[in-house]
């Protein structure tokens, strides 16, 4: 995928502390339109906190978050979502008692706005149904559309979660550890799914599986102790000594599973 020079998301000197403990300590990052970028870093580095800041779930102590050039610091998750940003969570977040199709339909309708009475119109309902079908196909779950979310395999639940995330057709997608807990084959399939659903979008993902990261993204940002210590191509990150010392060295030294 070719990224453009247009900056979609920018973090400027972002800080967040909990009580007296600084967790995000001056994070700077630029994400360009069409880019796939992985955020990696040791456990506790602040990756999920950074996602919470970007998506409006946590308010920054200081600094700026610009989405499409607009400062979104302090906006609610709902408002940030309306500006074209959708995120998934580390923990699977589906309705287990609803079918796959109903899960996706609810996500599509939510993206139209529950309070929007226009979705009751036939034309809008048709659009909702059409988008639901599209997402069912995109996330590879069409054959399981009538299966209850809770009856899906773990990997299929994660695929459904990706479907829920992309349902609203957001231009910027944040995925928090989409392959966590998967086997190697499941991770490879999930990476392909992420590749296909992110075509024409901008993707920021937290990911621990280096095989997935190196095969999928254009750039990698490395977060250590609340600061982005490097942001570069996978090859450059692999050769970066500071990164090796802080993170990759220890990961790559582990025997393959
Ligand atoms: N609401 C909170 N209140 C207090 N401390 C918090 C809060 N949220 C996160 N932290 C702390 O911030 C630090 C960073 O947590 P965070 O979950 O962002 O790290 P992470 O890089 O995503 O880690 P992991 O890879 O293990 O998921 C941790 O020490 C965590 O305990």
TrEMBL record:
<dbReference type="Pfam" id="PF12399">
    <property type="entry name" value="BCA_ABC_TP_C"/>
</dbReference>
<keyword id="KW-0472">Membrane</keyword>
<protein>
    <submittedName>
        <fullName>Putative ABC transporter</fullName>
    </submittedName>
</protein>
<keyword id="KW-0813">Transport</keyword>
<dbReference type="InterPro" id="IPR003593">
    <property type="entry name" value="AAA+_ATPase"/>
</dbReference>
<dbReference type="InterPro" id="IPR032823">
    <property type="entry name" value="BCA_ABC_TP_C"/>
</dbReference>
<keyword id="KW-0067">ATP-binding</keyword>
<feature type="domain" description="ABC transporter">
    <location>
        <begin position="9"/>
        <end position="250"/>
    </location>
</feature>
<dbReference type="InterPro" id="IPR027417">
    <property type="entry name" value="P-loop_NTPase"/>
</dbReference>
<keyword id="KW-0547">Nucleotide-binding</keyword>
<dbReference type="Pfam" id="PF00005">
    <property type="entry name" value="ABC_tran"/>
</dbReference>
<dbReference type="GO" id="GO:0016887">
    <property type="term" value="F:ATP hydrolysis activity"/>
</dbReference>
<dbReference type="InterPro" id="IPR051120">
    <property type="entry name" value="ABC_AA/LPS_Transport"/>
</dbReference>
<keyword id="KW-1003">Cell membrane</keyword>
<dbReference type="InterPro" id="IPR003439">
    <property type="entry name" value="ABC_transporter-like_ATP-bd"/>
</dbReference>
<dbReference type="GO" id="GO:0005524">
    <property type="term" value="F:ATP binding"/>
</dbReference>
<dbReference type="GO" id="GO:0005886">
    <property type="term" value="C:plasma membrane"/>
</dbReference>
């Amino acid at each position: 995928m070719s990224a453009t020079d247009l900056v979609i998301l920018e973090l400027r000197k972002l800080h967040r502390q909990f009580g007296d403990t600084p967790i995000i300590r001056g994070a700077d990052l630029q994400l360009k339109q069409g880019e796939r970028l992985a955020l990696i870093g040791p456990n506790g580095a602040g990756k999920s906190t950074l996602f919470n800041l970007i998506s409006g779930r946590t308010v920054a102590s200081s600094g700026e978050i610009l989405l499409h050039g607009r400062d979104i610091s302090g906006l609610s998750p709902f408002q940030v979502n309306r500006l074209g940003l959708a995120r998934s969570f580390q923990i699977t977040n589906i309705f287990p008692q609803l079918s796959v199709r109903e899960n996706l339909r609810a996500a599509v309708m939510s993206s139209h706005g529950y309070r929007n009475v226009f979705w009751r119109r036939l034309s809008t309902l048709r659009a909702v149904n059409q988008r639901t079908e599209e997402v069912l196909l995109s996330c590879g779950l069409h054959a399981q559309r009538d299966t209850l979310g809770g009856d899906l395999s773990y990997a299929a639940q994660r695929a459904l979660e990706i479907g829920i995330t992309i349902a609203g057709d957001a231009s910027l997608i944040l995925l928090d550890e989409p392959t966590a807990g998967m086997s190697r084959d499941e991770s490879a399939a999930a990476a392909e799914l992420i590749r296909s659903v992110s075509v024409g979008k901008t993707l920021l993902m937290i990911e621990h599986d280096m095989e997935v990261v190196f095969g999928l993204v254009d750039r990698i940002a490395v977060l250590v102790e609340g600061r982005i210590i490097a942001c570069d191509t996978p090859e450059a990150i692999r050769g970066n000594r500071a990164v090796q010392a802080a993170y990759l060295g220890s990961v790559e030294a582990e025997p393959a599973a």
